[in-house]
């Protein structure tokens, strides 16, 4: 499936470029990199210099590049990737 702004929350996020554009944790504000792992509650991103940062989904807002920028509220993706796919299948 091709990732589009309309279906990004139902797709695999690993490998996408991401920037944290909002967070209640000020230390994570403006972090950017590539998504390297995902759990139900966290995105793991590889930042400049190969550092890996764990970003809580529920308290953050993200900008993904696919290649255009798509803004996603973390609470919309605060579930496991499998659950997001099930949600898409139920919509059809």
Can you put this structure into words, describing what you see?
There is one protein chain. The chain has 92 residues and is mainly beta. It has one domain: Roll (SH3 type barrels), CATH 2.30.30. Helices cover 12% and strands 38% of the residues. It contains 1 helix and 6 strands. It has a 6-stranded antiparallel β-sheet, with no helix packed on it. The longest helix is centred in the C-terminal third of the chain and has 11 residues, at 81-91. It is globular. The two termini are 15 Å apart.
Reconstruct the topology from this structure.
Layout: E1 17-23, E2 32-38, E3 42-46, E4 52-56, E5 60-65, E6 69-73, H1 81-91
Antiparallel strand pairs: 1-2, 1-5, 2-3, 3-4, 5-6
Strand order, sheet with most strands: 4-3-2-1-5-6
Radius of gyration: 12 Å
How far apart, in Å, are the first and last alpha carbons?
A: 15 Å
Structural class: mainly beta
What is the CATH T-level topology?
SH3 type barrels
Q: Assign the CATH class.
A: Mainly Beta
For the report, how would you describe the main beta sheet?
A: 6 strands, antiparallel
Count of DSSP H/I helices: 1
Total strands: 6
Give the amount of beta strand, in percent. 35-45%
Low-confidence stretches: none
- The appropriate CATH architecture is Roll
């Amino acid at each position: 499936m091709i990732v589009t702004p309309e279906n990004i929350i139902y797709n695999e996020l690993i490998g996408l470029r991401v920037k944290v554009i909002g967070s209640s944790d000020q230390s994570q504000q403006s972090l950017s990199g590539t998504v390297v792992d995902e759990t139900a509650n966290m995105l793991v991103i590889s930042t400049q210099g190969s550092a890996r940062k764990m970003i809580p989904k529920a308290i953050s807002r993200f900008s993904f590049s696919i290649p255009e920028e798509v803004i996603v509220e973390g609470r919309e993706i605060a579930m496991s990737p499998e659950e997001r796919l099930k949600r898409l299948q139920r919509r059809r």
